[in-house]
Design brief:
binds S-adenosylmethionine; alpha/beta; tRNA (guanine(46)-N7)-methyltransferase activity; Rossmann fold
Length: about 270
């Protein structure tokens, strides 16, 4: 008699493969009702070198309260499921993406100083998300949205082509060890992606206090065919007035580091 291929109703469930990944609870269970998702789709499960280290950091009571109260209105999970309607989200303002806002103090200052620009601020750092939401609420700002997850997924899956008026990357993780250099955000592949989402004329503004990373940024940006240096001498830019001192920058300056700004314009497609 040939073996039946019909599954038996009381057949035991298949055991998960020995090597299947079971994420720890803190990556899958919500920490704040209606707050940011613990593991927005795509950011942690994708087999890709990431520019950040997932970590569970302590959230203060005030930050937690802000996440619970404000996430539904001003927060955005990077789940990779929909292309965002930036006009709807920002009421038609030109939109600048800030990648890695940390605790968000500088972001809030820039948003307050320029209410005619929308800031889409992305980070994976939960305390910072709560902090920025609280700062924006306190300042009565309506031009900031806080996104939770990996900026690469946001750019690749959720932003339309030529939709951004600028990108800011202030003090990205320097990954100083040679074996970690591949984790640095500013690489040719990232620039390829960023260029597709930036409108012609939009500016990519990077700043770092890590000299070797500054040199790498200058090299890869100068070599990219879709970016041109705003500096005629092809070098670093003076710090623009609109960029406030950031928390990470302050720590670098305390250690005697030198800060470099880079401002590169997205050129028209050839
Ligand atoms: C060194 S901190 C700098 C924070 C802030 N800009 C400052 O200057 O104080 C870099 C931040 O970038 C975030 N980050 C790194 N890669 C990211 C990515 N791919 N998507 C979203 N955030 C990222 C990290 O979580 C971290 O908060």
């Amino acid at each position: 008699m040939s073996e039946s291929r019909t599954p038996q109703p009381d057949a035991p469930e298949a055991e998960p493969a020995a090597n299947s990944y079971v994420p720890p609870k803190w990556r899958t269970e919500p920490r704040f009702p209606d707050g940011p998702a613990p593991d927005p789709a795509g950011s942690h499960h994708e087999r890709r070198i990431r520019s950040f280290q997932p970590r569970r950091s302590r959230v203060t009571t005030g930050q937690g309260e802000a996440l619970k109260r404000l996430w539904g209105t001003w927060g955005l999970d990077i789940d990779g499921r929909e292309v965002l309607d930036l006009d709807r989200l920002f009421g038609g303002l030109p939109v600048v993406l800030e990648i890695g806002f940390g605790m968000g103090e500088a972001t809030a200052q820039m948003a307050a100083a320029d209410p005619d620009t929308g800031i889409l601020a992305v980070d994976v750092h939960t305390p910072g998300q709560g902090n920025l939401l609280a700062l924006a609420e306190r300042g009565g700002m309506t031009n900031v949205r806080v996104a939770n997850g990996d900026a690469v997924i946001l750019l690749r899956e959720m932003l339309p082509p030529a939709s951004l008026a600028g990108i800011r990357v202030y003090f990205p993780d320097p990954w100083p060890k040679a074996r970690h250099h591949k984790r640095r955000l500013i690489q040719p592949e990232f620039l390829d992606l960023a260029a597709t989402r930036m409108a012609p004329g939009a500016v990519l503004h990077c700043a770092t206090d890590w000299e070797p990373y500054a040199e790498q940024m200058l090299e890869v940006l100068s070599a990219h065919p879709l970016f041109e240096n705003t500096q005629e001498d092809g070098g670093f830019a003076p710090r623009p007035d609109f960029r406030p001192l950031t928390r990470f920058e302050g720590q670098g300056l305390d250690k005697g580091h030198v800060v470099h700004d880079l401002l590169f314009r997205r050129v028209e497609n050839a």
